[in-house]
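Dear H.,

Thanks for agreeing to be a second pair of eyes. The structure we're designing against is below in token form, covering all 114 positions.
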């Protein structure tokens, strides 16, 4: 599992997950992003195009990131969720917690509207 990120518009970060989000990879992911949030990052898009697996620990980390960003006035949007990962988000009702978008560009545009 690897994460690729780049800041694209000041306080917007796009994170591309490659592989699976589980207990081993999730803490590394959220710790790095929380550090960026603490230094001023307010907008995160998680691009799930290449995400093939998410465990309960991975779901917990997404919630942790969401809860960490809220007091800072930040938000997490999720893009390109498909197949089994979409089913997991729907079953756990996290599809109601996170704003889901069909692609990164639509998620980026949604941040501009806020």
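And this is the sequence the design step returned. I haven't edited it by hand at all.
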């Amino acid at each position: 599992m690897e994460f690729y990120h780049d800041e694209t518009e000041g306080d917007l970060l796009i994170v591309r997950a490659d592989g699976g989000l589980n207990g081993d990879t999730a803490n590394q992911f959220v710790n790095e992003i929380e550090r960026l949030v603490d230094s001023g990052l307010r907008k995160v898009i998680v691009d799930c195009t290449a995400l093939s697996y998410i465990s309960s620990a991975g779901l917990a980390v997404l919630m942790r990131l969401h809860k960490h960003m809220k007091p800072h006035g930040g938000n997490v949007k999720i893009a390109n969720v498909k197949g089994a990962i979409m089913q997991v988000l729907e079953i756990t009702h996290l599809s109601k917690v996170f704003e889901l978008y069909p692609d990164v560009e639509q998620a980026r545009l949604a941040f501009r509207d806020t």
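Two observations from my side: The CA atoms of residues 1 and 28 lie 11 Å apart. Residues 2-109 form a domain with the Transcription Regulator spoIIAA fold (CATH 3.30.750.24).

Warmly,
E.
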